[in-house]
Amino acid sequence: MTPEECTKRIAGAVGRIGGEWMFDAVVNARGTELGFETWAWYHCGRGGVLGNPPASVVVAAFGFFPPELQTKAWEKGCAVMAPADTAREYAACCALWGTRRFASVDGAGRLADLLTKALDSAQAMGLPLFAGWRDVLHDFDAASPPERLALALQAAREHRGGAHLVAVRGYGVDPLQAVMSGRYGATNAEFFGWPQPWPDPEAGKEQMAAAERITNAIVAPAFEVLTGDERTELTDGLRAL
User: Fold this and answer.
1) Which of 3, 164, 185, 200 could form a disulfide with 220 if both were Cys (CB 3.0 to 4.6 A apart)?
2) DSSP string, 166-179
3) Which of these, 208, 212, 213, 233, lies nearest to 223 by C-alpha position?
4) Would you give the distance in Å from CA 178 to the centre of its chain?
5) What does the alpha-carbon distance between residue 95 and residue 230 come to, in Å, rounded to a whole number?
């Protein structure tokens, strides 16, 4: 299996499973326990790996959220706890979710090792959230296999997500149009908090398809460090999840 084939075939698993923990009731109950509103917990938990920058920096790194919503969420979260501390709490929740989600997965440690090996070889230029979550991943080097797999998937999700943001920006698609012309269209626009009116989804379809190809081109070199057999093993294992 080539790096390009591996990249395309694991994209769905990385996107869906890598972000599944953020919707987990136990994870969000921990945020409430700490004093966070839901969006503040998410934005500061995910973005706290950047340290404590102004909200505008976090808006730039996330890319696809309404700036006003994200600014309010970030500032509310910062009033509860320093973002770097929030990120540590959030990562710990991701790890604990992994123990529930992957406890019965044979070879969880092997999948974590292969994915981490690929991520360690990835170029982080232009991908600040990925760089931060990759560092977090290594804070848990001594964690259990299910915990490491959960965090590796989260870091992989930031790797692909950051690459996609760069690609979309390169094609000149604005954030709301990108959301509307993406796979989930108006459903995501509403979920992300974009006010109506929304643009025609068809207007950016061609550019978004091209951006997807560039996303794959940015992500694929990370998997060159694995052998063909290792790429097949990783792909089959992640897709089986």
Assistant:
1) 3
2) HHHHHTT--HHHHH
3) 233
4) 17
5) 24
Rounded to whole angstroms, the Cα distance separating 84 from 235 reads: 32
Q: Which of 237, 226, 213 is nearest to 8 (CA)?
A: 213
Q: What is the pLDDT of residue 146?
A: 98
The domain spans of the chain are 3-233
Give the residues of the chain that fall short of pLDDT 70: none
- The long-range contacts involving 2-7, CB below 8 angstroms and separated by at least 24 positions, are 2/228, 2/231, 3/220, 3/221, 3/222, 3/223, 3/224, 3/226, 3/231, 4/216, 4/220, 5/231, 5/235, 6/220, 6/223, 6/226, 6/231, 6/232, 6/234, 6/235, 7/216, 7/219, 7/220, 7/223
Q: Which two tokens stand for residue 101?
A: 């989600």
Q: Of 103, 100, 138, which is closest to residue 119 (Cα–Cα)? A: 138
Q: What is the pLDDT of residue 183?
A: 87
For residue 124, the 8-state DSSP code is: -
- Residue whose structure tokens are 């959220």: 65
Q: Which residue has the tokens 């004093």?
A: 35
Q: How far is CA 14 from CA 190, 204, 238, in A?
A: 23, 24, 8
Residues in the chain: 241
pTM exceeds 0.70 for this model:
yes
Residue type, 221: P
User: Are 105 and 241 within 8 A, CB to CB?
Assistant: yes
Residue 81: predicted pLDDT: 97
3-state per-residue secondary structure call for 145-161:
HHHHHHHHHHHHHHHHH
